[in-house]
Amino acid sequence: MAQPEKQRSTIRIYLDILSAADEEGNAKTTRLIQRANLPHDRLMKHLGELQKRELLVEVSDGGNRYYTVTPKGREFVNEVRRAQSFLSAFGVSI
Amino acid sequence: MVHPYFIENSFLSLISGLVALAVSYYAFRYRRVTGSSFLRLLSVGFMLLGVGLLVQGSVYLLAEFNVGRFADREALVYGATGVYLVLQSAAYLLIGTGYTIRVQRGETSEGTGTAAAFLAVQATPLLFGTLVLDAGELVILVLVSFVVFQGAMAYSELRNRLSLYVLLGFALIALSHLGELLGSLLASGDLYLVGGTANLAGFCLLLLFVIRSGRVGSA
Q: Is residue B219 part of a domain?
């Protein structure tokens, strides 16, 4: 019997989005959809939440929209990675 | 004086208590970011351990120097030691229960944790008298052994350095409780000192684990 696909936690999704945006510098929505492996509507919902928490900002350049990680967002990513490392020693994931 | 190395053991307990509180702080800090229920249990568990060890170290120092005629009040010394044993039992129970909760996929497996809870509850009403304090040590030893077993399972699955630190840390803490139990049964000060040293070494390994895990992402 096939194993059910493991569902990502919200914190894990935030980490994936922020990490992708940080690596890209100025990340386009289409790039984030690929990198975070999320459908458009869910990605937009999470992007809205991340902007509300001031972890990510939207930058408009002509007709294009880009997303950039804020210093607070970068610190959040580092803290989640530390927590992930801490938890992994106990066999638990975020 | 109850046994040699009494003061040394008291200081070892105080330092171990501070290390346990440091681990508790980091678990609390990471819980705020992740909202992990496992980290909540771990944070409270280590906080109880830290407080328990600080109580133990302080009580033994007060008794050793007979501050405020503390050593003359036998019931107070036994009572304080009892509090320390209950706190430690509760702490290892929480950590053991937390270990059984796998946050991955929301799966839980709490069978062993429940058994450990039963053991702790059974021991609590008995905490009056030296024999009973030894029984308390035995209960803690059982609970820590359970945590070591879970740690070994996690290490066999992950095979990384951090999980090895956690496994060795708890193994040394289990060894320390065995040393302290045997020290009490055989009235051996040397075994007490071995127990106290193993306890501190175990907590230092846990501290090393906290420091190493904290380096991730800060480069």
A: no
Give me the CATH number covering residue B185.
1.20.1070
Strand A56-61 with A64-69, pairing: antiparallel
Examine residue B1 and state whether it is found in any structural domain, yes or no: no
**The total number of structural domains that make up chain B:** 1
ipTM of the complex model: 0.78
Answer whether residue A64 is part of any domain.
Answer: yes
Q: Which domain holds residue B131?
A: 6-211
Q: Which domain CATH number covers A51? A: 1.10.10.10
Which positions in chain A touch B215 (Cβ < 8 Å)?
82
Mean pLDDT, residues B107-136: 47
Q: Are A27 and A21 in contact (CB under 8 A)?
A: yes
Q: Which residue of B has its CA nearest to A76?
A: B33
Interface test with B, best of A12, A92, A93 (most B CBs within 10 A): A92
* DSSP codes of every residue in A20-79: HHHHHSSEEHHHHHHHHT--HHHHHHHHHHHHHTTSEEEEEETTEEEEEE-HHHHHHHHH
Among A73-77, B2-6, B100-104, B179-183, whose mean pLDDT is lowest? B100-104
Whole domain around residue A42: which residue ranges?
10-87
pLDDT tens for each residue of A34-45: 988 889 999 999
**A11/B102 CB distance under 8 A:** no
Give the one of B34, B151, B217 whose C-beta lies nearest to A11's C-beta: B34
Do the beta carbons of residue B95 and residue B50 sit within 8 Å? no
Q: How many domains does chain A have?
A: 1
Higher pLDDT: A30 or B118? It is: A30
A82/B218 Cβ within 8 A: yes
User: Cβ of B30 and A88 within 8 Å?
Assistant: no
Contact A90 B160 (CB under 8 A): no
pLDDT in tens, A40-78: 999 999 999 999 999 999 988 777 889 999 999 999 999
